[in-house]
Amino acid sequence: MAVNGAVTWLRRAEEIDGYDLSASDSEEVHVLAVDDSLVDRKVIERLLKITSCKVTAVDSGRRALQFLGLDEKKEANGFDGLKVDLIITDYCMPGMTGYELLKKVKESSAFREIPVVIMSSENVIARIDRCLEEGAEDFIVKPVKLSDVKRIIDYMTTDFREGEERRRGINKRKLRDDGDGDGDRSLSSSPPSTLSSSSTAPCSTSTSPLDSPTRRLKMTSFEEHIFADKK
Amino acid sequence: MDRNRLQHQVACMRRSLFDQGYLDEPFIQLEELQDDANPNFVQEIVTLFYTDSARLIQNIEHALNSRPIDFDKLDDYMHQFKGSSSSIGAKKVTNECTVFREYCSAENAEGCIRSFQQVKQEYAILRRKLEVYLQMVRQAAVSRTA
């Protein structure tokens, strides 16, 4: 049985810190879902559970940070509760927006590696771009469908394996561009890795990540950046 | 009434809800998320929707009665209402919410008040129909084949 990337990453973390997760917990992808809407929270929770994920659903960015242990009042210790493998958050929320939550996660040394997916009822290119530039893994337009969630869990777990292999490979050779520290996050490196992962992923679904509207958006934004005249 | 007849009635009502534009694709998603382990999922979500809607309707009423009208707050409430109605596939309600938000961004108080009446009306109609429909679904589920 193939061990998916997320589980490999989890187990490695367990070994390093000696954190004792029960066997059943480490089998599942643990998703932190953030949405102020009662209805949407219940739906996303069900969508994730049906995709065999463990879910923690909270109603605000503040609570999400508390759960992660990133609250101002507490020090980030990285293992306050179950390890989070993915954060999926609504964009429009009172108090802290999904975008602000994204930034806080990406600014944190303990949690910046956790992929963050943004959900929004508004399909605004500028908003999508801003989120992707800040390091969001993907952007889903609401209402969220089961196929959206399946796609994300599938290519997320594949990406982990690819990411791990890339990182191991990079240790052996010098990085081409020194300033490319955030290269993994930027649009410029996403399309090629998507192409390779879709063809080699053993757990790929019938719909390739490339077919998804949000993936297309990601690539279109990239194209726009290359070809568009700056205003 | 025998099960086959009830199931047929359920199917007919379900089709008309979609054909007449009361419900849309997201509702089908909810139905697909229901299974033997979660047999009441649709009803649970719909009930949450009613609770949430009651709260938001009250907030919007209050905001519309305040002087001066806080259009930002109004838009915020309606954004939430539109969001949850869209999530359950309440098509007509969602459309009326969109109309309301247009008046809201134009800061047209009269337009807001008028379109809010439409929102409430569509919501009331949908709620009635859904209650009948889901009751029928429940009856069909517990009925026996003649």
From TrEMBL, chain B:
Subcellular location: Cytoplasm, Cytosol; Nucleus
Keyword terms: Cytokinin signaling pathway, Phosphoprotein, Two-component regulatory system
InterPro entries: AHP1-5/YPD1, HPT_dom_sf, Sig_transdc_His_kin_Hpt_dom
KW ATP-binding (keyword) present: no
Residue ranges occupied by any HPt domain in the UniProt entry: 38-140
Phosphohistidine PTM sites in chain numbering: H79
UniProt entry tagged with the keyword Phosphoprotein: yes
Its job: Functions as a two-component phosphorelay mediators between cytokinin sensor histidine kinases and response regulators (B-type ARRs). Plays an important role in propagating cytokinin signal transduction.
Domain observations: Histidine-containing phosphotransfer domain (HPt) contains an active histidine that mediates the phosphotransfer.
Protein name: Histidine-containing phosphotransfer protein
Species name: Hibiscus sabdariffa (roselle)
